[in-house]
Design brief:
The structure holds two protein chains of two kinds.
Chain A: E1 3-5, E2 10-14, E3 19-21, E4 24-26, E5 32-38, E6 44-50, E7 56-58, E8 64-68, E9 73-78, E10 87-94, E11 100-102, E12 106-111
Parallel strand pairs in A: 2-12
Antiparallel strand pairs in A: 1-4, 3-9, 5-6, 5-10, 7-8, 8-9, 10-11, 10-12
Chain B: E1 4-7, E2 10-13, E3 19-25, E4 30-38, E5 44-51, E6 57-58, E7 67-73, E8 76-81, E9 90-98, E10 105-107, E11 111-115
Parallel strand pairs in B: 2-11
Antiparallel strand pairs in B: 1-3, 3-8, 4-5, 4-9, 5-6, 7-8, 9-10, 9-11
The chains are: A mainly beta, B mainly beta.
């Protein structure tokens, strides 16, 4: 079965600084990869997704992620964070059966 | 586009009662909907997969008689928590897969259930 690992439980970053959230997956083939963001008490919003093709994908809100097959990683980045980026971020994997497996999530705190 | 709604957004009920949560895809047809449960500060756990016109598929450890799922149309799935107990208190989130857009799931805003 596939698994998703988000090594960082909590990240604190200054406003305007860059952000990188790590995601590693375990799966035999290349799965479909997603990053979602969740604000407190809310559902999940899709930031970006990777199915195939260009390994650097652009998403909403200035986020991007890079798929690295050799490292089984799909790290999320943003060059300059805004206070509104404070939220919970989930990496998810779809191993082609339309079911999503989620990582444990990374809480991002933005300090002024 | 790709908006999923849930109703109610929160509900408080007494132990032993049943609670129905609706999940609707507002601007697309959802051939498949999913129900997740999320405990505080934790990730989402898939409970069941709901396919329009057929029985739901439940994940291991999820009681199908406890969590009744109905997917009566391409835009509506319901989750009924039967004979609710305090341990059923949680945040329930649905998602819907656009049959035309393939693999992407769009999530509802969630329903917070508190069982007293």
């Amino acid at each position: 079965a596939q698994s998703v690992t988000q090594p960082d439980i909590h990240i604190t970053v200054s406003e305007g600084a860059s952000l990188e959230l790590r995601c590693n997956y375990s799966y035999g083939a290349t799965p479909y990869l997603f990053w979602y963001v969740q604000s407190p008490g809310q559902g999940l919003q899709l930031l970006l997704k990777y199915f195939s093709g260009d390994t650097l994908v652009q998403g909403i809100k200035g986020f991007e992620a890079e798929f690295k097959r050799s490292q089984s990683s799909f790290n999320l980045r943003k060059p300059s964070v805004h206070w509104s980026d404070a939220a919970e971020y989930f990496c998810a994997v779809d191993s082609n059966d339309y079911k999503l497996s989620f990582g444990a999530g990374t809480t991002v705190t933005v300090r002024a | 586009g790709a908006v999923v709604s849930q109703h109610p957004s929160w509900v408080i009920c007494k132990s032993g009662t049943s609670v129905k949560i609706e999940c609707r895809s507002l601007d697309f047809q959802a051939t498949t909907m999913f129900w997740y449960r999320q405990f505080p500060k934790q990730s989402l756990m898939l409970m069941a997969t709901s396919n329009e016109g057929s029985k739901a598929t439940y994940e291991q450890g999820v009681e199908k008689d406890k969590f009744l799922i109905n997917h009566a149309s391409l835009t509506l799935s319901t989750l009924t928590v039967t004979s609710a107990h305090p341990e059923d208190s949680s945040f329930y989130i649905c998602s819907a897969r656009d049959g035309l857009a393939g693999e992407t799931q769009y999530f509802g805003p969630g329903t917070r259930l508190l069982v007293l």
